[in-house]
Amino acid sequence: MEEQSVLSNTKVSLSSASMSNSSALLLLPFLAAFLVLWILSLAFLKKRYSRLRLPPGPPALPILGHFHKLSLDPHKSLQSLSRTYGPLMFLKFGSVPVIVVSSPEMAKNILQKQDQNFAWRSLPVVQRVLHKYPSIALSQPDPAWRSIRQICATQLFAPTKIKSFQPIILEQVRSMLRSIDADGQQKSCPRSKLHVASSNIISMMALGKKLQMNESNSTANASSHLTSLLVESIELSSIFNISDWVPWLAWMDLQGCERKSKVLGGKLQKVWTEIIDERRQYRNIVGPERKDTDFLDILISAFEAQDPLLEYEKITPILYDIFAGGTDTSSITVEWALAELISHPSKMKRVQDEIDEVVGNSRLVEQDDVQNMPYFQAVIKETMRLHPVIPFLVPRMAKQECRIEDFDIPANALTFINVWAIGRDENVWENPLDFSPERFLGSDFDIRGRHFQLLPFGSGRRVCPGMLLGITNVNLMLACLLQAFDFEPDERLDKIEKFGFVMALANPLLLKATRRIPIHLLE
């Protein structure tokens, strides 16, 4: 029996070894092809860049390029590299040429002096598959994109339009304030409440309903709800996808991002189609006397005027941008401001005293009050300097080869503006790591792209189209929170960052709140 067992085991081992050898033999052609492609790509890149005087940068590894230089906090890694190689660096992420900008002067070169050449985008695989047409943020600067930007500037995000939506914003802010336990004992997580408020503000303005009321009616499956689909799409877009950086491996879809995007895109389109169908049916019933009451109405009217055979797929990427760009960014900025003010009690007292002096306790803060609160405005600017929610902005791409100072920039180079590093540059700011709103008092610094030391919304033709809405939401949510409550941390407060689609606190704030104003103001 033992001999039979040994013989059986020997056969199994030989069989396994044979299968292993067969598998290795099957892989050999792929490995050989991979090696050939790698050698060819190196030769092509060497020839392509040999005549250029590229900006300085560290030595690159084969295939990986400079990925080995990045940590889990790439904004910090690139800041550290810029101290060695300068404010204009050339890197390669995989096979993609990358320019990293880390000073206001270099940012001005890209965003103002050569804005037109750097107004192009590289379209990631996930976004390309999710939407039939590119979103506003990722469209190329062609006539169609300019037309959409014009609609946004004149009809969606115009000052008069934002002002008309202020009652909606204030009502959602009141709802958020009511949801906070104010007995000074209960823990409260502002992030979740801020997220709900900002989501509902965007949804009310865009679709006329709170976000939870825009769920799919076709199925009870929660995975088909707009809320969960938007979260899933943002998470999928945040994945480091090898296909974006090593395009000749894209056909393999190694991480399954393309496959997942196809499935998710179909679900998203189904929900958007239901929402738009319902609205168009209502518009047909009401007839010509109807008024465009929200963004969806405005978009349908604008697109129908240009194209009577309207394709829904042209509207849905715009709606997606409005939700994705306007929800987390506002709520995370307010959370950072709260964290800094709670860490600096004297500054918290100063800004609350200013709110009390300007507004009192007989009504809630309104947007018009903010212009009379210079210290509050300085708090917002200082928060956005130290904690830009999108630390690299949305990467731009050089359409054509160009020159910046003494260096050549290759065509199709992806350009990262490290606004996080610019905001902490000791050559630009005095004591840059200190939270000091006072630095902005009496200065003309603004956050709308005119000053390249402070670029939370970008600048030039690619400046965030919803900037005014974002500023309004941040102003009202933060001012009302500071007016309504005194806060103290439930435990030791840390300000560790977590890099991602937006850069938030790694550990959400847990606070104890005590009400400062009469409760009837929240009703």
Automatic annotation (TrEMBL):
Q: Which residues cross the membrane?
A: 24-45
Among InterPro entries, the record links this protein to: Cyt_P450 (IPR001128), Cyt_P450_CS (IPR017972), Cyt_P450_E_grp-I (IPR002401), Cyt_P450_sf (IPR036396)
Keyword entries, A-Z: Heme, Iron, Membrane, Metal-binding, Monooxygenase, Oxidoreductase, Transmembrane, Transmembrane helix
Q: Which PROSITE patterns match?
A: CYTOCHROME_P450
Asked if the keyword Membrane belongs to this entry, the reply reads yes
Cofactor annotation: heme
Where is heme bound in this sequence?
464
Protein's UniProt keywords contain Transmembrane helix: yes
Q: Per the UniProt entry, what is one GO biological process?
A: secondary metabolite biosynthetic process
> Annotated Gene Ontology MF terms?
heme binding; iron ion binding; monooxygenase activity; oxidoreductase activity, acting on paired donors, with incorporation or reduction of molecular oxygen
Family membership noted in the UniProt record: Belongs to the cytochrome P450 family.
Q: Matching PANTHER family, A to Z? A: CYTOCHROME P450 98A9 (PTHR47944), OS09G0441700 PROTEIN (PTHR47944:SF4)
Q: What is this protein called?
A: Cytochrome P450
| Organism of derivation | Ceratopteris richardii
